[in-house]
Amino acid sequence: MSITKKVDRRTKGKPELSVLCSYYNNMNTIKNSLESLFKQSFKNIEIIIHSDGSNDLSDRIVEQIIKKKNNVLFLKSNKNLGLTKSLNFMLKFSRANYIARHDADDISNKDRFKHQINFLKKNKHIQVLGTNVIHKSNKKKYIQVPEKNFDIKNKLSYQNVIIHSSVIILKDLLTKNKYDENFARCQDYELWLRIKKFTNFYNLQKYLVTREIRNNQFSIKDLYFSCLARFKHINFFESFLFGLKDFFYFLLKKLFFK
Length: 258
Known about the structure:
Elements: E1 5-8, E2 17-23, H1 30-38, E3 45-52, H2 58-65, E4 72-77, H3 83-91, E5 98-101, E6 106-108, H4 112-122, E7 128-136, E8 140-143, H5 149-156, E9 168-170, H6 171-176, H7 187-195, E10 201-212, H8 220-233, H9 236-256
Parallel strand pairs: 2-3, 2-5, 3-4, 7-10
Antiparallel strand pairs: 1-4, 5-9, 6-10, 7-8, 7-9
């Protein structure tokens, strides 16, 4: 991936947490989204921001925000390559032992990283840590996900119950098991299914991320890639049944919730 601009405003000391945030034409949400990161009560972080071929005003907004920051690496590429490749690319620049995800239209609660890092320090066997989230569209919807490793793994085959933009993951685990760049969508779901047998998951039962949800956000591409992830990592019969369930859900959403 070729970089057309790089601004490194990070201090020399190694941070505890690297936050990965990629965006493409998010001029309406990027300011509030990034400010929620800079207002975190947990301060020992670096924020790695990648402009993935943006051609609206997003870059101008971001460059204005980061002018006086000392914990930011800003990377810009002219060609849009998609989130999956962007995440693997940003990972190469991270210096911390923990990696956090944050989407460019999400708001992280000011204590999100404090709660997550404190939990991970006390529970060193946990390698992937998510949280409950709030979905915001016309009204707020509180999304509760299963808490413990056993329950998460039981549900993962038919539902993604680790919400990507709420996750902190051990860098060592992610470096050895990078996102599959064949998955333009559902790259997180494919990763969870791939590492499930040797990974301990946990979801904090706190609502620490607010996600901007658009109508009919689940697309035909999501349906395709979620089915593909299952066919790769679970048995054919279950993959077929769960794919059929998702297909009917997709049709119902299209027909009755336009």
